[in-house]
Amino acid sequence: MTRYDHPSIFGKILLPFCIGISVLHGQENTKLNLPVLFISVSIFILILTINNLYRLLKVYNHKTISSVLIYLFFLSLGILWYCNASQLENSNNFSRYPAEFLRISVADEPQQQDSFLRFKAKVYTAYQAMQKQQTTGYLLVTILPGSGHLPELHYGEIYYIPANYKTVEPPYNLAEFDFKSWLALQHIHHQIRLAPRELVSSKEYKGYALIRFALAFRKKQVDVYRKLISDDNAFSVASTLILGYRADLNAETLSAYSKTGTIHALSVSGMHVGIIYLVLNQLLKWMDRKLILKWIKVIILLTLIWFYTLLTGYSASVLRSAVMLSMFILARSAHQHTDSRHILYFSAFCLLLYDPFLLWDIGFQLSYSAISGLIFLQPQLEKLIRFKSYLLQKPAGLLSLSVSAQVFTYPLSCYYFHQFPVFFMISNLFITLPVILLMYIGIILLIFDLYWLSPLFEWLIIFMNEGLKKNSRSPLLQHQCHLVYHY
């Protein structure tokens, strides 16, 4: 066993930490902060004491005891982290105070549909008569047009609204989508519907200036695509695929992606961040000549990768890829060996420290399942499928890539979506090259203002969409694995 084959310390502590986060999930009362904090501190002090008296106590003869203590510490740390992240248990949560009006800010980019406008709001103040109370917590706000027009809202804007919010209702049908649980993962437990006239602007701004800049920058790039691409579906795919902008797709196109098992292509993922890295790395390759330029290149790469992560809405899969790529870039620049498994465990641990509720995020679960398949299963498949011909080996490599990811995400696909696209391999082989070309052309088009590429860009998207629609109508692809759960 080489020194690189030893299991990562983050691989060992990740399991008890995840179990700790899961212990209280779904419980109404999670007020265990002080007891768990006391236990965590006690175990930590005990571990430090044992470490300092390692030789005196001959701990090397009782490694099981020290291992159990470390696991218990990270188990209790997971519980404590979950309790601390639970918004409802915060004593200043706005739902704990009677109020007539609330002072809120737009906490995310508003999503406009044909008949309504929806956004996540952060509640800062609750007003009751002449009293005001500083609060915390999030609220889902839906603006219905009524007789007026939908307002144009932006991230960070402050508004006053009436406090006639309601608790998000649970699903009343077992097969119905659990909207309540999905919102709870985003720390949202209440929602409100308003008419445009009930939204009163304070002409103030809150939030992070960098996020506001990134969203405004993305809006400009989306507007560029809107001017250059005439086909509505092609525009929606381009905006979603490259910029992470949640544009509307028609039902037929969305169904084609879903039936063929290629719906993942419509969300910005690790592959997209990887392509961004490859493009930037190639453009900055001339900086590898000198040491000082090499480290300037590292700073530029990390800055632009994280800006793209911010630009696309910092979803779980993009965050995972950004963390892993950052570690890879830093290790490579320092001439250190990089083990994909260690990077995988470390990135998961970092993201769960950032937000423990990500553990139940479907994107987080699918992303880490897929990348686990690529790390653990794909090398084995590549050993089995070998061709001397380059023309045969390349498709075989793509096939092993697709199979590895799909095998590891299969249980989650069945659990969440109750179906599995049997002929996903055909569709994924068809879509891989167009998606890569679209990413390159779409990014180059925006960076260098090469607008003459837009007809090719639009045609390629339409070609991909129509190809998937034909595949979805194929008799072979009509056979899906549907699962029905009996309760």
Can you describe this structure in just a few lines?
This is Contig2, whole genome shotgun sequence. The protein is an alpha+beta fold and 487 residues long. 55% of the residues lie in helices and 12% in strands.
Describe the 3D structure.
Pfam families: Competence, DUF4131. Residues 33-199 form the DUF4131 domain. It comes from Pedobacter lusitanus. It is a multi-pass membrane protein. It is a single chain. The chain has helices at residues 9-23, 33-52, 63-85, 179-184, 209-228, 232-243, 251-259, 270-283, 291-311, 316-333, 340-354, 362-376, 378-384, 390-417, 424-447, 454-473, and strands spanning 101-106, 111-112, 117-128, 131-134, 138-143, 157-162, 166-167, 188-194, 200-205, 419-421, 480-482. α14 (390-417) packs across α15 (424-447). The chain has 16 helices and 11 strands. Strands 1, 2, 3, 4, 5, 6, 7, 8 and 9 form a 9-stranded mixed β-sheet that branches. It has a two-stranded antiparallel ribbon with strand order 10-11. The protein is α+β, with helices and mostly antiparallel strands. It has 3 domains: 9-85, no CATH class; 94-207, Beta Barrel (OB fold (Dihydrolipoamide Acetyltransferase, E2P)), CATH 2.40.50; 211-482, no CATH class.
Total of helices: 16
Q: Are there runs of 5+ residues with pLDDT below 50, and where?
A: 483-487
Radius of gyration: 25 Å
Number of strands: 11
Overall residue-averaged pLDDT value = 80
Major β-sheet profile: 9 strands, mixed
What's the order of the H and E elements?
Answer: HHHEEEEEEEHEEHHHHHHHHHHEHHE
Q: Indicate the proportion of strand residues.
A: 5-15%
Q: Give the proportion of residues in helices.
A: 40-55%
Distance between the termini: 48 Å
Shape: globular
Number of domains: 3
Structural class: alpha+beta
